[in-house]
Amino acid sequence: MIISIEKGFPEAGIEHVTAFLQAHNTHYHVANLYGRQVIGFEKELSPALVEELRLMPGVEDVIPVSTPYKFASREWKTEKTSFHVKGEEIGGNELTIIAGPCAIESEEQIFTIAEHLHRSGIKFIRGGAYKPRTSPYSFQGLGLEGLKFIRQAADEFDLRVVTEVIDLNVLDQVYNYSDILQVGSRNMHNYYFLKELGKIDKPVLLKRGMYAKITEWLLSAEYILTGGNERVILCERGIRSFDDSVRNVLDISAIPLVQQLSHLPVFVDPSQGSGIRSLVNPIAAGAVAAGCDGLLIEIHPNPSTALSDGPQSLYLEQFTHLTQKLAPVAMSVGRNLSLKTKIFAK
Ligand code: PEP
Ligand code: MN
Which ligand is closest in space to the CA of residue 248? Predict the structure, then answer.
């Protein structure tokens, strides 16, 4: 259930409501989301108690929500969530494309990619400075130096930075150098960490855990929302299956399903979602056709030398070609992909 408080009602003025909930042994959470105070709680109260609540000063509505996640649900917030990141809308009519290397490897590498993205009409760059690798012997990322490189490259080429935050120790650093903080698949279940991300005022791109059910993923988003951070992007990146022909099995059905269940934007990562370069383009097109709000794609000037995820990284030209092919696919499902490409203008 969610109690929504009238817009502009004083923050300190809802004690009578919370006292009532406490008296009825309810675990509740107060947040400030989408322009009003809201109180979410798991327990459904009896119709008589709901009537009492409805009559309380400041209470605008009491909304039953049948799913375990409340603030993330579409039952509560029927209109889609959209927001701007440095002038670029996410979750609106425009399809968002985020591309870049799996890992930031050098100043030259990230500047080459940033320039290419700029000339291809792309507005968001990705790249990990802290890499959660399966093996401790694999490249772990350039850390702070990498964050500085991607920020400089992004600023030079009018790009917004999406980069992964792996734990609390580097949260301040990643916050300072990024525009959207990525939470990796391996961290989706790190609930205390997610709570901290609820306190920040930058968007969080939350990858689906590789073993996570849709409900678990949405409950993870709920952890961020309950902290008051309303700018959460969900990103499907494939799940593990019995079949190892692909690295992960991209769950296409998750796109329309999550959009029905939740108001949050749904992105897709076809790179981790397949692990195979030749599959990235068809999967990306499929994801756009299924209605995703954005894509996260790994690209590299020379994938054979990449320090991380080379086999799934697109060559730069391959990527530009893909974006041009995606524009009509986007249009066929009522979306727009406006690429103000400068690639031929040199
Ligand atoms: C990545 O985007 O490079 C990455 C590590 O993703 P995931 O957390 O989905 O594995
Ligand atoms: Mn990767």
Answer: 1
